[in-house]
Structures are given as structure tokens and as C-alpha cells.
Specification:
Elements (H helix, E strand, L loop, with lengths): L1 E3 L23 E3 L35 E8 L14 E5 L2 E7 L6 E6 L5 E6 L8 E9 L2 E11 L2 E9 L5 E7 L5 E2 L3 E4 L3 E9 L6 E8 L5 E9 L7 E4 L4 E7 L5 E8 L2 E10 L2 E8 L2 E8 L2 E7 L5 E9 L6 E10 L4 E9 L10 E7 L9 E2 L7 E8 L4 E7 L9 E9 L18 E3 L10 E8 L5 E7 L2 E7 L5 E7 L6 E8 L2 E7 L5 E7 L4 E7 L9 E5 L2 E8 L2 E7 L5 E9 L5 E9 L2 E9 L6 E8 L5 E7 L8 E8 L2 E7 L5 E7 L5 E9 L7 E6 L2 E8 L2 E6 L4
Antiparallel strand pairs: 1-33, 2-20, 3-31, 4-5, 5-6, 6-7, 8-9, 9-10, 10-11, 12-14, 13-14, 14-15, 15-16, 17-18, 18-19, 19-20, 21-22, 22-23, 23-24, 25-26, 26-27, 27-28, 29-30, 30-31, 32-55, 33-34, 34-35, 35-36, 37-38, 38-39, 39-40, 41-42, 42-43, 43-44, 45-46, 46-47, 47-48, 49-50, 50-51, 51-52, ...
């Protein structure tokens, strides 16, 4: 198994301010702290309470993710307008309320929903001001709704306007908030104790310069106070919530490389309490009795953290959602809470590239109190699209509302509500691992940590439960061996050689065999003894297209397989790395082979290589049977479906066949395939999503488990992945 160096994450600040999960984290820098009461139970518009009359206790676990119970159209065939920041869904009396701006007629609507998601009423919001408007958001309390929107008065002038609606959605009052000749941007709104708070951005067209907050009397609409929270930092759309005693406001500052700023605000102004998240956009805040939850998107991942009343992390920043497609951009997360766990819903957009563009998706995942995320559930059907999800805990189930097939050619757009519940066990068709499967990450031994200048690494699982690794750092190649407790037993710096790449490691009697590619594309094979000393090296001819070789020890010696001249060639060496038979073509695949791996099974060897397909942006795994000398047995065959950017195959022999693992697009997923003794595909491949995100990773099969290794920041992490 080989790991090539990927994008490094800057860790930046002291570790005391960071939580590392999967080997990396996003720093949180608390601002000035002062004694502040802990957040209390959120008001209905801010999120679910931990106990609701008649509510069922949430299940103890949601490790297997969610399942949809029902879905209904809540907007009578309408679709919400695309540039809404996030749709508004909140509790209203015994049901819920949903505010949206219709795409076709630009009218704003409020839908009152049953707990099932079915619409009791859908009414257009009548604004006293008839100017053009956009970015309609709402807050909910009791039977009333307060709606904020941007209203345009001139080409480069727009203000924030509020309107309060009664139980029949009739306006009780409306108010212009802090009017200005400048352009006011997308608002966020929260219902406090005695007033309504609205946060927004302001600046000269097309840029914004400041974040502002106004406190408005809930009974009259009169503005009581306004605050300017930031200036000159080109802020993004804010999020504002009420924790029972004060407001929390978060926004993305684009100044320099960008941060997420979070501040606590009382009726007298900023309290001096808050935090700064390094990087990230689109923050979403949710108060709970356990702390302030913050979700955001960063580097094509969805992140989550929980802060205490002083802005310090109670749950350190962690990735809770990635996507297997390298062109996907998961973004704009929203949160809800069931009293135990968080639900995070988000959309994923796909941008045209050399791979393939796809319709947008709406997804949701459940995160346990320790930050462990269940597999995400796509909210839409396989042949549909989804956007703009919002989520709420009803006391019994999750209620999610999202846009389905908005503007998709030939399809009817809908705003859809879905009821979701925890799926407590795999479906009958799924395979349950024979033994316990720990899906959480444990840090790799210190000896396997990779330095920032590491070029690549190969990691090998040993029979005694330990690990061996061969890694490249600058001009050095380093061999490391650790025992099952993580203690380093061997560390040796091998002779320097410029231009080495793609190391591979295999166990042989009395030591290890190592292989790598040199500057000319040749394959060098070395013999390493138990003490880590290189005893012998032999060079096999290659070409510029040579990719990672495979190694396997058989009854006849050491077989080496690699791509050369458009074919997979094999050579046989003895235990001292001396050539027994020169490289000769063993298998010709329809397309140029790339990375290869060898595994020894009940009937000889299996070579598995990544190759191209008819579509240049995809790749597959093809396999061929070999005898113990490396000669072909039968014709090559196709073992996997097409994927983008497959790499790092690994093969192990099982009692009745073989098991293959490889990393998928940008190492966002692991592909595993079970084969029979003659190389026949016995079980379709399983996709095992990885939480590592971007970077270059490798998968090593060890018995019935699959271990995923990844370079994340400066750490090599190890994880046993459970099948879905």
C-alpha cells in the first residue's frame, strides 16, 4: 500500500487551542473571556428543546445513519429561489413554519406544516412596501412569524425590511431597519426575549464592509438599538441566534485568507466573548444546553464545533461530512438537535471539469455527542437533484425541507418535506463484519508520523499486529518498524538516491523486500534485513509510464509486477533480491496499466492494476491470475466499475479467494472487491466513505478489515473502516 504526499493543512496555532480529528483540526481562538451563564434551552425558533411534551426519547445510537419515512410537496409545485442564503424552517405551535421566495413569481410565502411535513396552509406574504425584494428569511414563535428581506430602492441601494405576521399570516406591523444609501445584504434573524434581532451586511456595491445588528421591539417593530460589529473586512452572510440570555452572531471575514468570527451580543453591545475559526465560510449557529454548535464548510468538507459560554471549544473542530466526488463542493450546512445528537444538512454542487458535472445534491448526516458522524443520506432520489435543505427535530423525528429538481430540464420542481428516523441496523442485504469494527480513528504511532517534506510512503501490516513503513523524505528513504503497542523497534535511514518515488514494501523470510521507481522509470528492488539494513539492490528496466509496482513472496521466490510498454510485466527474484527470471509480459490490458498490487491466494497470485477506460476521466481495476513464478494463468478480467482517479490498490489472499482495496476519487472513498480463487468477482464492490477529505491516501487489506491510511496535515492516521 502506497501513500503519496497530498495537500498539507496548516496547523498554525498552539495545540491547546486545537482539536485534532483524523490527524487535523481547525484552530479556534477564543476572544476575551468573562463569566457568562451557560446557554440555556433554546427558544422554539432557534432549535429543538431537549424535552418536548409527548416526545419520544431519541434512540441511543444512530450509527447506521438515517432513513426516509415519507416525503410530501409543501409548496404546491413551487421551487424556492436559488440565491436564498438558507431557507427558514422552525417550530410553530404543534407544527412547523417554512418561509421561502418563489422562483417563478418572486413572491414570498409562508407554509405552515404539520409535524409530518404536510402543509396546513401556504400563503403569500403581503409586504406594505411593493419594491423588488430578495433574500427572504423568517423566525418563528408561538403562532407568529417575523420575516426579514432585502428591499431595493435604487440600483445600488437596498435596505432591510421586517414584517410580523399573525396566525393567519396577516401583517401586524412592518419596519424599515436602519435605512442607508448603501447596499444592505442578506439578513439573518432571531427572536429574543423581548425583541427581534436582525443581522446583515452593508457596504458600497458590489462589496460589503461591515456587519450590523438591530434590535427591534417585537410588539411594535420600532428599532431599539443598532450595533456595528465589524468594519472593513468584506464579510459574508451572517448567522444570529438567541441562547436564552444573549445573542451569538457569526460571519465569514474575507480579510486576508479568511476567518469565521463569532461574537456574543447583549442588549448593551458586545460582551467581549467570542471565538475565531481559522478559514471556512457559511457559518451556521445553533444554541443547545451543552454549548453553542457551529457548522461551516471549508476545503470541500463540512465541519462542526461546539463552544462553551466563553468561546472555548467543548467539542473541537472536526470534519463531519465529505463527498466521494472530487468536484463536489459540500456547502451551506444547517443544524438541528434532538437532545442528544446533531443533524447537519447541506447541499453539494458539482462544477464542470475534466471529470464530469452532475446535478446538485441535498444530504443529511447525524453526528453523535463525541463528533462521530453517521453515513450521509441523500434526500433526493437517484435520478433527481436536491438543494437548500433545512432541518428541524419535531420531538419524534427529523423534519427536513429541501428543493427537489429546481430548474432541472424536463422535471417538475418541488419544495419537499421529508420525515427521517435513525436506521438502527443495517438492511438485511448488507454485510455485517464478522467481528467488532471500530470506525473511529486512533492516531498512528509516532514513528509513522510523516514530516512535511515527505514525498510518499508504503505501510505494511505485520502478522504480530505491528506495522512496517517505507517512506521518502527529501533524498532519504527511511524504514520504520513498530510493535502492536506503537513502540518503535526499528528505524533506519537507507542510502540516499535522488528521484525515487512510489515505494512498495513486502514481507519475505528473514526481513523485507522493498521496491521503488528511479529517475529513469526503472524499478529498483532491495532486500532489507530484520534490523532495517539494506543488503542488496537490483534494477529492473522500466519506462516513463512505469507506476507503482507490486511485490509478493511465493514458494518460488519474490515476484515483482509493474507496468512497462503498455503491459504488466513480471520478474522473479530470490530472497536476496537477485534476478531469477528477467521481466517478461504477463498480462496485456485494453488500456495502459497504472498502479499495481500483488496478493497470494489459494491458487497462486493475483495482480490488480488500475487502468483507464473508454472515458478518459474514469478508471477501473483489472486483474489477472499468475502462478507462483509470475506467469499468466488465463486472460485478464474486469474487477470494478468505473471511478475517477483510482489509486493505491492493495491485494490480500483469503481462505477462498482475494480481497482488493483501492482509494477512490481524491481518496474520498475506498473501493473494496471480493474475488473467488480464480479471480472471479464474487461480490460487488462496496463503497466505504472516508472522512479524510482531500489528500493522497492508501488502503491496506488485512484479513477481513480494511485499514485506511492518510496524510492529513503532518500525520499518518490509521482507521479500520466498517462496511456500510
Amino acid at each position: 500500500m502506497t501513500i503519496s504526499q497530498g495537500k498539507r493543512l496548516s496547523l498554525g496555532l498552539p495545540a491547546a487551542l486545537m482539536g485534532l480529528w483524523l490527524g487535523c483540526g481547525t484552530p479556534i481562538v477564543p476572544t476575551k473571556s468573562e463569566p457568562v451563564p451557560a446557554p440555556t434551552t433554546p427558544e422554539p425558533d432557534q432549535g429543538p428543546t431537549p424535552s418536548v411534551p409527548g416526545a419520544e426519547a431519541p434512540p441511543a445510537s444512530c450509527a447506521h445513519g438515517l432513513e426516509a419515512r415519507a416525503s410530501v410537496d409543501v409548496a404546491r409545485g413551487a421551487s424556492a429561489f436559488f440565491y436564498e442564503d438558507r431557507p427558514s424552517l422552525g417550530r410553530l405551535d404543534a407544527g412547523a413554519g417554512y418561509v421561502y421566495l418563489d422562483h417563478d413569481n418572486q413572491g414570498a410565502f409562508v407554509a405552515r406544516l404539520e409535524a409530518s411535513g404536510a402543509a396546513k396552509s401556504v400563503r403569500e406574504i403581503v409586504f406594505p412596501d411593493k419594491h423588488e425584494r430578495s433574500h427572504v428569511v423568517g423566525a418563528f414563535r408561538g403562532s407568529d412569524v417575523v420575516v426579514a428581506s432585502v428591499v431595493y430602492h435604487a440600483q445600488q441601494e437596498a435596505d432591510i425590511e421586517l414584517v410580523r405576521l399573525d396566525a393567519q399570516d396577516r401583517p401586524l406591523w412592518s419596519a424599515r431597519v436602519d435605512p442607508s444609501p448603501r447596499l444592505d445584504g442578506t439578513p439573518a434573524i432571531a427572536w429574543g426575549k423581548d425583541e427581534i434581532a436582525v443581522a446583515w451586511t452593508r457596504g458600497p456595491y458590489p462589496m460589503h464592509e461591515s456587519v450590523r445588528v438591530a434590535l427591534v421591539d417585537a410588539n411594535t417593530g420600532k428599532v431599539k438599538r443598532t450595533f456595528e460589529l465589524s468594519t472593513g473586512e468584506n464579510p459574508g452572510v451572517p448567522s444570529i441566534v438567541w441562547d436564552g440570555e444573549a445573542y451569538w452572531v457569526g460571519w465569514h471575514s474575507r480579510e486576508t485568507r479568511g476567518t469565521i468570527e463569532i461574537r456574543r451580543l447583549t442588549e448593551n453591545g458586545l460582551s467581549g466573548v467570542g471565538a475565531t475559526l481559522q478559514g471556512g465560510v457559511n457559518p451556521f449557529l445553533l444554541p443547545t444546553p451543552t454549548g453553542l454548535a457551529v457548522a461551516w464548510d471549508q476545503d470541500h468538507k463540512i465541519w462542526l464545533a461546539v463552544l462553551d459560554a466563553a468561546g472555548h471549544p467543548k467539542l473541537a473542530p472536526r470534519v463531519v461530512a465529505t463527498h466521494p466526488d472530487p468536484i463536489a463542493s459540500p456547502r451551506k450546512p444547517v443544524l438541528a438537535w434532538d437532545g442528544v445528537r446533531f443533524a447537519v444538512a447541506y447541499e453539494a454542487h458539482f462544477h464542470a471539469s475534466v471529470i464530469v458535472a452532475r446535478d446538485p445534491e441535498a444530504l443529511i448526516a447525524v453526528v453523535d455527542p463525541n463528533g462521530g458522524a453517521a453515513p450521509p443520506l441523500p434526500l433526493h432520489d437517484k435520478d433527481s437533484s436536491g438543494e437548500m435543505p433545512a432541518v428541524l427535530w419535531t420531538g419524534k423525528e427529523w423534519l427536513v425541507v429541501y428543493n427537489r429538481d429546481r430548474l432541472q430540464k424536463g422535471k417538475k420542481p418541488e419544495v419537499v418535506a421529508a420525515r427521517l428516523a435513525c436506521r438502527e441496523a443495517p438492511a438485511p442485504s448488507e454485510t455485517t463484519p464478522a467481528g467488532p469494527c471500530d470506525a473511529r480513528t486512533r492516531p498512528a504511532p509516532e514513528a509513522l508520523r510523516l514530516q512535511p517534506n515527505t514525498g510518499a510512503a508504503s505501510v505494511l501490516s505485520l502478522d504480530d499486529g505491528g506495522w512496517a513503513a517505507l517512506r521518502l523524505e527529501k533524498e532519504e528513504m527511511i524504514f520504520v518498524r513498530v510493535d502492536r503497542e506503537g513502540k518503535t523497534t526499528t528505524r533506519a535511514v537507507l542510502p540516499a538516491a535522488a528521484g525515487r518515488r512510489e515505494p512498495t514494501l513486502a514481507r519475505v523470510p528473514g526481513g523485507f523486500a522493498a521496491a521503488w521507481i528511479d529517475e529513469q522509470g526503472g524499478v529498483e528492488v532491495g532486500r532489507i534485513d530484520e534490523a532495517g539494513a539494506m543488503r542488496k539492490t537490483t534494477r529492473l528496466p522500466g519506462d516513463p509510464m512505469t507506476s507503482r509496482p507490486g511485490l509478493a513472496w511465493t514458494s518460488k521466490g519474490l515476484v515483482v509486477a509493474y507496468a512497462r510498454g503498455g503491459a504488466v510485466v513480471t520478474a522473479l527474484l530470490d530472497g536476496a533480491a537477485r534476478i531469477v527470471s528477467q521481466p517478461a509480459p504477463a498480462a496485456r490490458f485494453p488500456f495502459q496499466p497504472g498502479d499495481c498490487a500483488l496478493g497470494h491466494g489459494p491458487k497462486g497470485l493475483l495482480v490488480a492494476c488500475v487502468t483507464g477506460t473508454e472515458r478518459t476521466e474514469t478508471s477501473v481495476i483489472r486483474v489477472a491470475r499468475l502462478d507462483d513464478t509470475g506467469k499468466a494463468i488465463g486472460a485478464p478480467s474486469l474487477a470494478s466499475g468505473p471511478y475517477a482517479l483510482l489509486r493505491n490498490p492493495s491485494v490480500i489472499g483469503t481462505a477462498d479467494g482475494f480481497l482488493i482495496a483501492a482509494t477512490g476519487p481524491f481518496a474520498r472513498e475506498v473501493i473494496t472487491i471480493e474475488l473467488g480463487p480464480n479471480g472471479e468477482v464474487r461480490r460487488p464492490e462496496r463503497k466505504l466513505l472516508s472522512s479524510y477529505g482531500y489528500g493522497a491516501f492508501g488502503a491496506a487489506v488485512t484479513g477481513k478489515d480494511i485499514v485506511v491510511f492518510g496524510i492529513d496535515g503532518q500525520t499518518l492516521a490509521e482507521r479500520t473502516v466498517c462496511p456500510e
